[in-house]
Amino acid sequence: MNQEITLVATLPSTPRGARAARALTVAELAERRLPFEDAAQVVAELAANAVTHGRVRGRDFRLALHLAQGPTLRIEVSDTRREFAPPAPCQAPDAEAESGRGLALVAALAARWGTDLGPAPLKTVWAEMDLASPISPDRGFRDPVDQYPVPHDA
After folding, report:
1. What is the reported pTM?
2. Which residues touch 149 (CB under 8 Å, ≥6 apart)?
3. Averaging pLDDT over each range in 24-28, 91-95, 136-140, 148-152, which range is the top one?
4. Higher local confidence (pLDDT), 99 or 56
5. Helix (H, G, I), strand (E, B) or coil at 6
6. Taking a C-beta distance cutoff of 8 angstroms, is the pair 117, 123 a contact?
7. DSSP of 67-93, one letter per residue?
8. Which residue has the higher pLDDT, 141 or 64?
9. Please, which pLDDT band fits residue 93 given cuts at 50, 70 and 90?
10. Residues near 13 by Cβ (< 8 Å), separated by ≥ 6?
11. SS3 of 97, please?
12. Strand (E) positions, 1-71?
């Protein structure tokens, strides 16, 4: 498949790095006038998993966004804890569980998702999304954070 690489970023394996991955995704897709709401949610979930389950002290995680004709967006989040690969297929968490719903959300938003194991210790969790799906004109083109003014102290 002939892909145009949209973005590749190495980010710290911290909550701040996970937030930066989401913000970079929003900025890149908004600049291209592509819907970003669902993609930003998928990136947030995959980056949070990389930070929570794939973190190795002193090692970063990588975010890659690939845009192909269609347009199809391929999101890849790589970390260095391949022993913590997500279960396949995605199993629903226990109703009382406080976590474990992120990959179910990824599965609901993405057309396809999976895990590739690279040379040890690399693990990449990826998701592909069809950005040409019909959406409402307002959905996905404005970051919800920007919808509400934030008061600034003088």
Report:
1. 0.78
2. none
3. 24-28
4. 56
5. strand
6. yes
7. EETTTEEEEEEEES-GGGPPPSSPPPP
8. 64
9. low
10. 50, 51, 54, 55, 56, 59, 60, 61, 79
11. coil
12. 4-11, 61-68
Query: What backbone phi and psi angles, to 5 degrees, belong to 73?
Result: -100, 125
CB atoms inside a 10 Å sphere around CB 72: 17
At 94, list the tokens. Answer: 């226990």
Strand intervals (E) in 1-131: 4-11, 61-68, 72-79, 112-117, 123-130
Which 8-state DSSP code applies to residue 132? Answer: T
Q: What are phi and psi of 86, to 5 degrees?
A: -65, 155
Bridge partners of 90, per DSSP, are none
Number of CB atoms found within 10 A of residue 10's CB: 12
